[in-house]
Design a protein that fits this description.
The protein is an all-alpha fold. It contains seven helices and no strands.
Length: about 190
Amino acid sequence: MNLANQLTMLRMGLALAMFLALMQKSVASHWAAFALFLAAIVTDWVDGYVARRTGTVSAFGKVADPIADKILVLGALIGLMRTQELAIPPWGVFLIIARELLIGGVRVLAGVNGKVLAADAWGKWKMGIQSVSVLLMLAILVFLESFPSPPAWVLRLPYHLTVLCVAAAWSSAFSYFRQSRKMLEKSWS
């Protein structure tokens, strides 16, 4: 397994550790979740850089990298939903999960047709937007635990960040559906 793929697998482990830290009800655990999420998004950038720089882009990496991204972002959102003060809308998390399942289905269909559907520019933008948004939500969680009476706008921010994540997810989904339209139409016949 090449270094880029090892970093992708490390990100999956970091995502699991981050989720477990979020499930704890302590400030130290939430700081750890923030640090683990930050480390995971750094590995996302580094593994892509390493794969391109060393010419080790692989079919495994094209499939595993987006899966690691989904585990990371969805794990964080699900964990953050436990904190009622953040007011993360469940419908937003549902729409993001639905998008990921639909695009996963498109990727499987592409695989059946002998193609690997790698992340496109929209997918990379989506991950960037979601990573920054979730990192901000984690920072707000830690902030709330340190300063119990935050300004009202801080409490409203996670809702708006979730809406931004949903918009990015579905904008990206429409891009994938558009580029996969012929394949989808062929599969329906």
